[in-house]
Design brief:
The complex is a heterodimer of chains A (about 250) and B (about 200). Chain A has about 250 residues and is an alpha/beta fold. Helices cover about 35% and strands about 25% of the residues of chain A. Chain A has one domain: TIM Barrel, CATH 3.20.20.70. In chain A, strand 3, helix 2 and strand 4 form a beta-alpha-beta unit. In chain A, about 50% of the residues are buried. Chain B is of the alpha/beta class. The radius of gyration of chain B is 16 Å and the shape is globular. Classes of the chains: A alpha/beta (about 250), B alpha/beta (about 200). Chains A and B meet through loops of A and helix 1, strand 8, strand 10 and helix 6 of B.
């Protein structure tokens, strides 16, 4: 049976991990490559490199870092951030990315989902969606959560998978940063219509939150988090062991 | 030296890096002489079967591979590369493959309830090794997890079945016939377990 995936997300700016912290046995905790290796050794099933640089120079540094990571870490790598065109897909795939996640770029130009899926395959295209409740409805937000697009999240995700997105990352802005657990209600609504894997993001604060996620919603395929892994609040090895003890199928 | 066949499908960066990482020389090439001079061959591939098969046949690469297979060179097809080793595929129509492995490529959706089993199968799944003395798995144990991404699977290939994985049914994970091998999963994306499978392949004579 396929295992549930645990995915740390690394925010990279000018070649460094943002929010780097102390890790035993890590020489340079701000090095994305070192951190990627560390997570891979701890049992991370996949890594997301999120490029938060805006400058062209920063982009170049990012792809250099990506190449270096893909030369020493042999688990799937997803790249997100600043993906607006097929050239952006090309740029990161050539450096060893396996999947590319689009967010605002797809809202601006929805055609990119289908175009990328045709060229690189559905499995390569991840639709990442920032969602927040507005008047009791799930709205899609763009530009890193700064702009309410007014789009209905469920309709947008349906459209995304029909166009060829091979995976959905659902980031609940309502639970993000709160650390009181994943947004199970929002995830359920998405899982009800999803034919492709759904990755839960936003809200994890402790190991129990992951157990609850996979127990309550067995149709969720993966859990993604950033700071709780970086700050050592949740250790991936311990997390996966705990999941296994709770009869949730994971790769140990 | 390992020749990684470049026929214009997919991204070979990680594959090439994985060989460098285990200390094996590998070259990405479409040069027939270089391929015939290599000790072993990797046939990679992502995307659709029809397009990839057309590229293999149109470029003459299919003939090079047939010569190499006949000369007894170890060949490993990965993901779509494994599927191309089969006789035919039913992915969007019917397409002819290389025919090194008896059987055909069929949609997973024919066999499972797609409400329960999402298509593509994406993620880490456990191997059950069917052929215990297979040299490809000499460093691999039953239950080791490897990374899969696929919507189609190898069918009617009992004779060459090496390993399966459970995804609603026993899905072909690896095949082998003589010196020709194929893995549906990506060893270059399967961490230590995957690197050991590549190492075992590199030790084949």
């Amino acid at each position: 049976m396929i295992t549930k995936r645990i995915i740390p997300c690394l925010d990279v700016k000018n070649g460094r991990v943002v929010k780097g912290v102390n890790f035993k046995g890590l020489a340079d905790v701000n090095s994305p490559v070192e951190l990627a290796k560390y997570y891979s050794d701890c049992g991370a099933d996949e890594l997301v490199f999120y490029d938060i640089t805006a400058s062209a120079e920063g982009r170049g540094i990012f792809t250099d870092i990506l190449c270096e990571a893909a030369s020493s870490v042999f688990i799937p790598l997803t790249v997100g951030g600043g993906i607006n065109t097929l050239d952006d897909f090309d740029r990161v795939l050539k450096c060893g990315a396996d999947k590319v996640s689009v967010n605002s770029g797809a809202i601006r130009d929805p055609k990119i989902i289908g175009d990328a899926a045709k060229r690189y395959g559905d499995q390569c295209v991840v639709l990442s969606v920032d969602v927040k409740r507005v008047d009791g409805k799930f709205h899609v937000f763009a530009k890193g959560g700064r702009e309410d697009t007014g789009l209905d999240a469920i309709e947008w995700i349906k459209h995304g998978q029909d166009s060829g997105a091979g995976e959905i990352v659902l980031n609940s802005m309502d639970t993000d940063g709160v650390k009181k657990g994943f947004d199970l209600e929002m995830l359920k609504a998405v899982c009800d219509i999803a034919r492709v894997p759904v990755i839960a993001s936003g809200g994890a604060g402790c190991i129990e939150d992951f157990v609850t996620l996979f127990k309550t919603l067995p149709e969720v395929d993966a859990g993604l988090a950033a700071s709780i892994f970086h700050f050592g609040e949740v250790e991936i090895k311990t997390l996966k062991k705990e999941l296994a003890d709770n009869r949730i199928n994971v790769r140990l | 030296m390992t020749a990684i066949i470049d026929y214009g499908v997919g991204n070979l960066f990680s594959l090439k890096s994985s060989f460098a990482y285990i200390g094996e020389k590998a070259v990405v090439t479409n040069d027939p002489d270089e391929i015939m001079n290599a000790d072993r061959i990797i046939l990679p591939g992502v995307g659709a079967f029809g397009d990839a098969a057309k590229k293999l046949f149109d470029s003459g690469m299919a003939d090079v591979l047939k010569d190499a297979a006949a000369a007894g060179k170890p060949i490993l097809g990965i993901c779509l590369g494994m599927q191309l080793l089969f006789e035919r595929s039913y992915e969007y129509g019917e397409h002819k493959g290389l025919g090194f492995i008896e059987g055909s490529i069929r949609p997973i959706s024919e066999r499972v309830d797609t409400k329960k089993y999402k298509i593509p199968q994406i993620g880490w799944n456990a191997l059950r090794i069917v052929k215990k003395d297979c040299p490809l798995f000499k460093y691999t144990n039953d239950g080791d997890c490897v990374y899969f991404v696929h919507s189609y699977y190898g069918a009617e290939c009992d004779k060459s079945l090496l390993a399966v994985t459970e995804y609603g049914f026993d899905v072909t994970a690896a095949v082998g016939s003589g010196n020709v091998y194929g893995t549906q999963f990506h060893p270059e994306k399967s961490g230590e377990v995957g690197l050991k499978i590549l190492r075992a392949f590199c030790e084949m004579k």
